[in-house]
Design goal:
By secondary structure, this protein is an alpha/beta fold. It is built from 12 helices and 9 strands.
Amino acid sequence: MGENPTLGWIGTGRMGHAMAARLVAAGHDVHVWNRTRAKAEDLGAVVVDAVSDLAGRDVVCTMVSADADLDQVLLGPDGLLRQERAPRVIVDSSTVSQETSARIRAAAAERGTAFLAAPVSGNAKVIKAGLLSIAVSGPADAYDEVRPLLLDIGQTVTYVGHGEEARLVKLAHNVFLGVVTQSLAEVVVLAEKGGVSRAALLGFLNASVMGSVFSGYKTPAFVNLDLTPTFTTTLLRKDFDLGLSAAKQSHMPMPLAALTRQLVEAAVARGHGEQDFAALLVEQAHNSGLELVPEDVEVGDGLAARAAD
């Protein structure tokens, strides 16, 4: 592939934009396509008019919302893998089912294109801080080739297998994310009903052995009720459905996940679908007879300090 492969990028939503921006900042030759062109024009990359314009790139990365979107941009009538030329490697960071991923992997192989599943952990703020984590599965030789590019996007890159294993890793991650968020919401409401501010409780937890990158960067949302989406409640529901489907196929119970999925569904039904999944806190308070108000306290998300370490 060479030391300086040409790159293509498909999908510049919240996550895709931040990820592509890191590649541009690292000096890579990046061409970008997004359904809404205006959302890509501030990247400083070449913005192309059609997905097919990326077919001649060495490596193309995709970051789209759902299975149908990935299918459309890769296998649709004007899709990347329907062109006369095809990229050497496609790296997909979308959260999609293992079945969709396997079908696209097979179609890519027919074109001589290596397909890597590369889902990520983090949101746009985490990406900008350089703290993104990436799990990758697919052909090992293709992984070795693109690993340096992925390290320009994220802090850690973990190879987890030769097939669809990274999809399962991502689903496990997001199910855990939802269960942890619900648990955190419950203890925060418990403390507040006893007279402890959210800022005080989370300040204590973040400094304790129970603190984490996640609890730190969710603290501003929990304290000041900023539900500007980093990851919507609707998307979290989708990932619970995918995770529970995988569990069913493996004949294993996931009682905590199943219960949390119902609480996520209730949050969506109550109008929080397009808000950040921190809305689970609002719903937990509502169900506990407590209507929350922003505490209007300046609290950090801990990302700058971790990025400096």
